[in-house]
Structure formats: C-alpha cells, structure tokens
Amino acid sequence: xxxxxVVGILGGLGPEATLRLFQVILEKTPASSDQDHLHLIxxxxxxxxERLPAILGTGPDPVPMMVASGQALERAGADFIIIPCVSxxxxxxxxxxxxxxxxxxxxxxxxxxxxxxxxQIKKAGAQGILSGCTEISIVIDPSSFxxxxxxxLTILGQAAIRExxxxxx
Length: 169
What we know:
Helices cover 41% and strands 12% of the residues. The chain has a domain at 7-104 and 152-164: Rossmann fold (3-Layer(aba) Sandwich), CATH 3.40.50. The strands form 2 sheets. The chain has a 4-stranded parallel β-sheet with strand order 2-1-3-4, with helices on both faces. A two-stranded parallel ribbon has the order 5-6. By secondary structure, it is an alpha/beta fold. The chain is globular, with a radius of gyration of 16 Å. Helix 6 (136-139) links the parallel strand 5 (129-131) and strand 6 (149-151).
C-alpha cells in the first residue's frame, strides 16, 4: 500500500479562503469513512502582512512570516505545501528557495487544468474565466458564467489530493 503524503496548508492569507480550501479537499477526497480522508496540517496565520502592498512596494514583506509558517508545517510533518492565496504566489520563487518542502503552484495547476479541459481557450477575448482571487470562489459559483469557469481553490484542492496519493472526485 502506497503511503499517503501529508498536506500542509499555509493559510490565513484570507482565512475564509483557507476554510474553503479545506472544505474542497474534504468534498473531493474519495472517502467512505473518516479514516479515508487525508492528513492535513493547517497553519492559519492571518497576521501575515498583506501581499498586494508588498508587491507594489508600499507595505511590509510577507515572506519572513510565510517562511516561518512553512517551516512550522514541515516540523509538524507536512510533505508538501499549498497556499490558498493567489497573490501569495507572487512570492513563490523566494519561498521555494527558502523552504525545503515542495510548494504546489495554484497558477501552474490552473493552467494545466484549463489546457486539459478546454484546450481551445487561448486568452484572445473572454473564452473562459478563472476565479483568480481566492475569495471570489467563496461568493461566485464558476458554473454561473456564460463561458467555462474555473475555480482556483477547487483546482488547488484537487491537486493536493492527487499529490497526496489519491484520485480526487
């Protein structure tokens, strides 16, 4: 039997997005009992500085606190990290250099998913919509769009389930 990996969620960068990602993983995990669910470790730290001001050069750098959260996840036993915040992915190259655990990129996973399910989408006009800000998927259902809709949190949750060793629903 293949050992399942432990999922580390670097959360709090939008506590509701963290909660929604946890919910997606629970819903998409093929489980018939509690014991069939994945082992998840969540470090929910809403005190991490805002990402957009840091990106624009007007706010404090969130990377040191994100690194501390990533290290806490590693110490707790996570095998890889997911981050339910799109803007935090701006800092992914630096985080990847400073953390030893792999980080699954929500953006890369979204690109793969869109290409696999809607290869005709080439971004020349609105041929599909990606709920890019993670809070959007809390309030808007992508199936309500008139063009194909993709939820970044759902895609990331499914990627985490796959990386952990299961096939998502």
